[in-house]
């Protein structure tokens, strides 16, 4: 089947989510394909940030308990609004910390090496920050990370075979840390299957949801996921450095967090100022210090859009858009040396398309000059992420046309093939 301009126009007209595009600030004449790295600002996120600023202006210290969104309960409120995105009970999700900080917190809580069971299993394509956190908890507990951290190998350099992960799990493994979606190739794991297999071997499982939350529905509670953590600045559009989130299954609410601080207190007790810690009986216990209100504020407006739409429609459009993108690439870009490294089947494809090319770094520079914002990942990967809330089918079509022109004209040759400081 050939994709025609008529088809592109029809998909845009029939798009049930098209009105949401107008809610975002999209630079005139620019095509944004980098929402999996930093989502764009929406008007609702902007207005929730301004409204929280106003509450400081109008209430001073009383903003903790007065105003439209009392700050003292804001993390809990955002947790409750986030819960449907991950299929959790509202007490199981808290908006706090950062992805990496939350992983440190969760490892400090759940990594409890006993006798032979001391190892942590991850994968060799894992995001570096997660690996650094795992290495550091192993060191803190007096182990050698080179011996205790097992990284499951990739057979093709892009994806990880689920059976290879499951085969590494045994009575020597304490925790399995995996991303729900691999950040480079966009492979989506079968979270339910792997969690179940790990539990059968007595292994606790923690999932990094950075590349799936806001793009893909989850059922963390039902799947009995032990814990999860993610950022809110990618598909959730909560702004650079926006506060992250964590999930702890209610079956673990009897645990005391490894890293404690007064904002993890039972809210009724916190201001008793006692030196004996009385933790909240929910995921709220995993908070540490005073919440970063202004770095959480945009998430409120953003989550209201997700609440309105529901994850199913978002996932359906996202899958269709990545499918169309893949077909366009095949149709328009064969013979130029691109290799698609994302999984092709819907069940294991995340929210982006991943293209390998030896000239990837400078092709990305050309794309930027010509109005497309892509994402480069070392050594040779171009990631293109259509985002259901604001990408049009025309964006996809034009991106591929621009890529074809770049290849035809060898436009990229004017740049060096090196990454930028931030890439
Ligand atoms: C973006 C991302 C992170 C980032 O961690 P921060 O602590 O938010 O900087 C971590 N893990 C994965 C898989 C990511 O995609």
Please render the helix and strand layout as text.
Blueprint: H1 5-14, E1 31-32, H2 43-59, H3 74-86, E2 93-95, H4 99-110, E3 119-123, H5 128-140, H6 145-148, E4 149-152, H7 162-167, E5 173-179, H8 191-200, E6 204-208, E7 227-230, E8 245-248, H9 293-309, H10 311-332, E9 339-340, E10 353-356, H11 360-369, E11 372-373, E12 375-377, E13 381-384, H12 393-409
Parallel strand pairs: 1-11, 3-4, 3-5, 5-6, 6-7
Antiparallel strand pairs: 2-8, 7-8, 9-10, 10-13, 12-13
Structure, explained:
By secondary structure, the protein is an alpha/beta fold. It folds into two domains: 5-32 and 310-414, Aspartate Aminotransferase, domain 1, CATH 3.90.1150; 48-308, Type I PLP-dependent aspartate aminotransferase-like (Major domain) (Aspartate Aminotransferase, domain 2). 36% of the residues lie in helices and 12% in strands. It has helices at residues 5-14, 43-59, 74-86, 99-110, 128-140, 145-148, 162-167, 191-200, 293-309, 311-332, 360-369, 393-409, and strands spanning 31-32, 93-95, 119-123, 149-152, 173-179, 204-208, 227-230, 245-248, 339-340, 353-356, 372-373, 375-377, 381-384. The strands form three sheets. The chain has a seven-stranded mixed sheet, with helices on both faces. β5 (173-179), α8 and β6 form a beta-alpha-beta unit. α2 (43-59) packs across α9 (293-309) and α3 (74-86) runs parallel beside α9. The longest helix is centred in the C-terminal third of the chain and has 22 residues, at 311-332. The chain is globular, with a radius of gyration of 22 Å. It binds pyridoxal-5'-phosphate. The site of pyridoxal-5'-phosphate (PLP) has 13 residues, from α4 and α5. Pyridoxal-5'-phosphate binds at residues 98-100, 127, 129-130, 179, 183, 208, 210-211, 231, 244. Pfam families: KYNU_C. Its EC number is 3.7.1.3. Pyridoxal 5'-phosphate binds at residues 99-100, 127-130, 208, 211, 233, 262, 290. It catalyses: 3-hydroxy-L-kynurenine + H2O = 3-hydroxyanthranilate + L-alanine + H(+); L-kynurenine + H2O = anthranilate + L-alanine + H(+).
């Amino acid at each position: 089947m050939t994709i025609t301009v008529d088809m592109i126009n029809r998909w845009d007209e029939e798009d049930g989510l098209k009105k949401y595009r107008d809610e975002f600030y999209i630079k005139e004449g620019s095509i944004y394909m980098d929402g999996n790295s930093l989502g764009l600002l929406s008007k609702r996120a902007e207005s929730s940030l301004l409204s929280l600023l106003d509450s400081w202006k109008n209430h001073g210290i009383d903003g903790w308990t007065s105003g439209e969104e009392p700050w003292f309960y804001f993390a809990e409120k955002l947790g409750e609004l986030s819960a449907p995105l991950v299929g959790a009970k509202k007490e199981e999700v808290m908006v706090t910390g950062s992805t990496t900080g939350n992983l440190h917190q969760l490892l400090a809580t759940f990594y409890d090496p006993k006798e032979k069971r001391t190892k942590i299993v991850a994968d060799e394509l894992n995001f570096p920050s997660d690996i650094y956190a795992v290495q550091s908890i192993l060191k803190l507990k007096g182990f050698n990370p080179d011996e205790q951290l097992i990284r499951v190998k990739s057979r093709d350099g892009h994806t990880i075979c689920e059976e290879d992960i499951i085969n590494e799990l045994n009575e020597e493994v304490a925790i399995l840390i995996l991303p729900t979606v691999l950040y480079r190739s966009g492979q989506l794991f079968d979270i339910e299957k792997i969690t179940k297999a790990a539990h059968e071997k007595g292994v606790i499982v923690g999932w990094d949801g950075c590349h799936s939350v806001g793009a893909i529905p989850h059922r963390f509670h039902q799947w009995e996921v032990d814990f999860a953590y993610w950022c809110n600045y990618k598909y959730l559009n909560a702004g650079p450095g926006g506060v992250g989130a964590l999930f702890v299954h209610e079956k673990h609410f009897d645990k005391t967090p490894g890293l404690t601080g007064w904002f993890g207190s039972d809210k009724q007790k916190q201001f008793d100022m006692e030196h004996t810690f009385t933790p909240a009986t929910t995921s709220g216990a995993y908070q540490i210090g005073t919440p970063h209100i202004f770095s959480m504020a945009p998430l409120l407006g953003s989550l209201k859009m997700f609440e309105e739409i529901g994850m199913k429609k978002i996932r359906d459009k996202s899958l269709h858009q990545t499918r169309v993108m893949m077909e366009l690439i095949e149709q328009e870009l064969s013979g130029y040396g691109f290799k698609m490294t994302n999984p092709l089947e819907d069940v294991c494809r995340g929210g982006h398309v991943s293209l390998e090319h030896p000239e990837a770094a400078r092709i990305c520079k050309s794309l930027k000059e010509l109005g497309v914002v892509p994402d480069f990942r070392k050594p040779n990967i171009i990631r293109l992420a259509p985002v259901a809330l604001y990408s049009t089918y025309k964006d996809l079509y034009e991106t591929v046309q621009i890529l074809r022109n770049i290849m035809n004209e060898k436009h990229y040759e004017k740049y060096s093939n090196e990454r930028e400081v931030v890439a």
